[in-house]
């Protein structure tokens, strides 16, 4: 009998050692950890993070793992949730996008909290981080054209990875890891609607919730609780239920432990949706090279990917009223780049969202899809 996909993923998570990880992959794991902590610390005073911390504080729980920037402790699932929220809050953390997008650093707290709880070493933590990146990034290749294209958010991929990361840190057996993957992976699918139209706090919350779910699943599996073994390929598993894409299981499993994709994951130059980065960079170069006066701009035509012209340029993106809508608005980001000569976290505060210089430019910006750019993606 062929091993299930989740079992092969679990075996990778269980067997990987620090010495098996090439130095470039170790280095990137450390850099992504530092980048993530920086993102988290910078987000501490954001209103939504203050609200989230109050929520976690009121929940209480056994003091098992630290919340970044606060020094207080809570139980493992709550710590994983809060730390993942902090990392994700500014939309400044890492990005990997092939068929599906992902922010693998959202899963780092699934390694961090259990590692602290068990007193594991820094090397152990690096192993957990590498496991998160290798599995999450491979899942971004697995569906053609991508589950995001048929209405599902990439947190629906994270739910399979976070339990394996947490489980490895908690010392689960292979069978327990498989159970954890089945528990989480059968219960936390996320609608793409959290990043469509007018955006809310859920834009940055969906993936952290999938990270939290994985930690809970690992803890449950540790008690002996069982979950679907063939959660991917079984009857009414993910391959069958999300059947309007073409799945390639080998894209998930091929090269595990041999080829390390973490070295291909990207860092963000701007605290905005990834598809805005190339147009922002082009505009900043044009403005600087030609000394363009924002008040003299009559029109701006942005040629971008089909996805960028769709979800980043719908009517709500021309009237962004929330930070989440603004940092996923291509017109807003372009207007900020022209008006201010850069795009920074300070451009998404409540005060900045009312800047008349930016609003005067918004109706002058038109975004259109360009198939030539689609063919270049994700290199652009």
Mean pLDDT: 97
Task: Trace the largest sheet across and list its strands.
Answer: 1-2
CATH class of the largest domain: Mainly Alpha
CATH topology of the largest domain: 2-methylcitrate dehydratase PrpD
Distance between the termini: 43 Å
Report the strand count: 8
Strand content: 5-15%
How big is the Rg? 21 Å
Order of helices and strands: HHHEEHEEHHEHHHHEHHEHHHHEH
Shape: globular
Domain count: 2
The number of distinct helices, counting runs of at least 4 residues, comes to 17
Helix content: 40-55%
CATH-scheme architecture of the largest domain: Orthogonal Bundle
CATH superfamily grouping of the largest domain? 2-methylcitrate dehydratase PrpD
Regions with little confidence, pLDDT below 50 for 5+ residues: none
Biggest sheet architecture: 2 strands, antiparallel
Based on the structure, what is the oligomeric state of the protein chains? Answer: single chain
Q: What structural class should be given to the helix and strand makeup?
A: mainly alpha
Explain this structure.
With 380 residues, this protein is mainly alpha-helical. It has two domains: 5-264, Orthogonal Bundle (2-methylcitrate dehydratase PrpD); 274-376, 2-methylcitrate dehydratase PrpD (60s Ribosomal Protein L30, Chain: A, 2-Layer Sandwich). It contains 17 helices and eight strands. It has a two-stranded antiparallel sheet. The protein has a two-stranded antiparallel ribbon with strand order 3-4. Strands 5-6 form a two-stranded antiparallel ribbon. Helix 2 crosses helix 6 (122-142), helix 4 runs antiparallel to helix 9 (206-222) and helix 5 runs parallel beside helix 7 (155-170). The longest helix is centred in the middle third of the chain and has 21 residues, at 122-142. The protein is globular. The chain starts with a helix and ends with a helix. The model has no long low-confidence stretch (mean pLDDT 97).
């Amino acid at each position: 009998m062929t091993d299930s996909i989740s079992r092969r993923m679990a075996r990778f998570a269980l067997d990987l050692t620090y010495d098996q990880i090439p130095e470039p992959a170790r280095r990137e794991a450390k850099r992504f950890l530092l980048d993530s902590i920086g993102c988290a610390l910078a987000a501490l005073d954001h209103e939504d993070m203050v609200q989230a911390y109050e929520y976690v504080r009121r929940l209480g729980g056994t003091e098992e793992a630290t919340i970044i920037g606060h020094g207080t402790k809570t139980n493992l699932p709550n710590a994983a949730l809060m730390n993942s929220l902090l990392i994700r809050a500014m939309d400044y953390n890492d990005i990997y996008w092939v068929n599906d997008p992902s922010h693998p650093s959202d899963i780092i707290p699934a390694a961090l909290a259990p590692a602290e709880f068990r007193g594991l070493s820094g090397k152990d933590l690096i192993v957990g981080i590498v496991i998160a990146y290798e599995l999450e990034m491979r899942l971004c290749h697995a569906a053609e054209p991508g589950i995001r294209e048929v209405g599902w958010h990439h947190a629906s991929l994270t739910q399979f990875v976070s339990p394996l990361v947490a489980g490895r840190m908690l010392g689960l057996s292979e069978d327990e890891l498989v159970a954890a993957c089945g528990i989480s992976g059968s219960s936390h699918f996320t609608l793409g609607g959290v990043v469509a139209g007018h955006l809310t706090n859920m834009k940055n919350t969906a993936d952290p919730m999938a990270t939290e779910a994985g930690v809970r699943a690992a803890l449950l599996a540790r008690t002996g609780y069982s979950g679907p073994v063939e959660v991917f390929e079984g009857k009414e598993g993910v391959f069958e239920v999300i059947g309007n894409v073409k799945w390639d299981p080998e894209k998930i499993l091929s090269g595990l432990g041999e080829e390390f994709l973490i070295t291909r994951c990207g860092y963000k130059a701007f605290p905005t949706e990834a598809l805005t980065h190339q147009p922002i960079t082009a505009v900043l170069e044009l403005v600087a090279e030609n000394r363009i006066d924002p008040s003299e701009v009559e029109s701006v035509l942005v040629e971008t990917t089909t996805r960028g012209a769709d979800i980043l340029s719908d009517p709500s993106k021309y009237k962004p009223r929330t930070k989440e809508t603004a940092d996923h608005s291509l017109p807003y980001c372009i207007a900020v780049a022209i008006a201010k000569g850069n795009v920074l976290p300070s451009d998404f505060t409540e005060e900045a969202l009312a800047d008349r210089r930016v609003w005067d430019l918004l109706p002058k910006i038109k975004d259109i899809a360009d198939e030539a750019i689609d063919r270049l993606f994700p290199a652009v």
